[in-house]
Design brief:
- With 416 residues, the chain is an alpha+beta fold.
- The chain folds into 2 domains: 243 residues, no CATH class; 139 residues, FAS1 domain.
- Helix content is 31%, strand content 10%.
- A 7-stranded mixed beta sheet has the order 2-1-7-6-5-4-3.
Length: 416
Amino acid sequence: MDSLFQRSSSLSAILLIFGVLVGAVSLNTASEPAFAQSSGTPTPSPVQGTATNFSDVAANYWAQPFIQALAARNIIAGFPDGTFKPEQPVQRAEFAAMIQKAFNQNRVRQLEGSGFTDVPTDYWATAAIEEAYETGFMGGFPGGEFQPAQDITKLQAIVALANGLNLTADSSLQNAIATSYLDTEAVPAYAIDEVAAATQANLIVNYPNVRQLNPQQSLTRAEAAAHIYQALVRLGQVQPLASNVAATQYIVGRTAASGQTPAITPTPSPTTSNNLVAVAASNQFSTLTSLLNATGLAESLSVRGPFTVFAPTDAAFAALPEGTLEKLQQQENSKVLIQILLYHIVPGQFTASELSAGDLKTLADGSVNIQIDPAQNQIAVNDAKVIQPNIQASNGIIHAVNEVLLPPNLNLSQLQ
């Protein structure tokens, strides 16, 4: 089991390459999930100007260094009235235009036929969209559409940059991002590799809270400038912001010395000998502990927190359908195993008396449902019963459950 994730980086690379190649085969296969379609008329991008100082971007505006630097390189532009409109959402066509101006990546695939069905040949951003697709940055939607007038989300932008720059994350950070952001549950499973890679490469910029990713919110023009600038830093085409520049405090994983760092370093808890993993290992959770160690989640669960862990007993894992546990430990099912483990972990510490009926968000892509039966003095989590509550650790609390919790829509019979 200790060798389960020795090839995790290779797995990430394979998944990334697979995503690129699938997009090259057919426009009906999207590298990004479908969202609500926009029926609006495509809006031209701002006109290119020579000024790098905009009337609505003050010297103390959080993203001013990123905006000014990219404007000076003619990657982004202002509007005819001298404004930049930093809080305005970025449309997919506009982001493609920014990518075209910022990067000079090799083409990795070819746009089929006459291109996207909703991008006319005389559309202002046709060439930029084609290049963003063929260089692997952006994908299409089912039906051969690009949806150029739809706002791009922050997550889609991060995925685009990670794909276009061919970034992969090492296994330790790939698993540690679950505790690096306050809202990791908002990151869908398909994007975990890309978010991890972008995090490790210092591409992600979060304002005003560096630990709040807000992945599903529309990307603003200021955020687009910040992320593209950081991507150029990664490529060595621009210098990192000086450490005394206020904007560096919003770069995920920065260091005080340089404003950059290759990965997020966990902050140790005051007492680690009595942490969640150590306490679990000394009780009836040897299978859970082994899986946490094998996936790399144990390190983060040992030094971060507080967390509430609904911990399946060894008997609970043994009760899984025959062969399931062995399949989960196979390399090809590693992402499924990680999601299952994260589904048992809730941010914050909740003793049995502090739990209330209703849904509770986990570190995975979903919530568990808590049921309280005061008459029987019983707590249930989904269909599992809490058989031993309130096992205290230095960085959280453990409630033993008699079944393995499975995320919604997970079908164990489909394991490879």
